[in-house]
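In this section we turn from sequence analysis to structure. A common task in structural bioinformatics is to predict how a protein folds when a small molecule is present, because the ligand can shape the pocket around it. The inputs are simple: the amino acid sequence and a SMILES string for the ligand, here zinc ion. Study the lines below before reading on.
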Amino acid sequence: MKCPNCKEELLKKQDKQFKPFCSERCRSLDLSNWLNEKNVISSEISHSED
Ligand SMILES: [Zn+2]
């Protein structure tokens, strides 16, 4: 299994609480990316209404 964010191979000894990410940093980064995409989409919608 690889981390979806940094593509680093996850090690079995690594903490599973961040699965499927390798760390809390990657998990939060991916979440913020996802939220940014949401914001872009919503802003585009509001622009089209203009
Ligand atoms: Zn990672």
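Residues 3, 5-6, 8, 21-23, 26 surround zinc ion (CB under 6 Å). As an exercise, try to locate the residues that line the zinc ion site and compare them with your own expectations.
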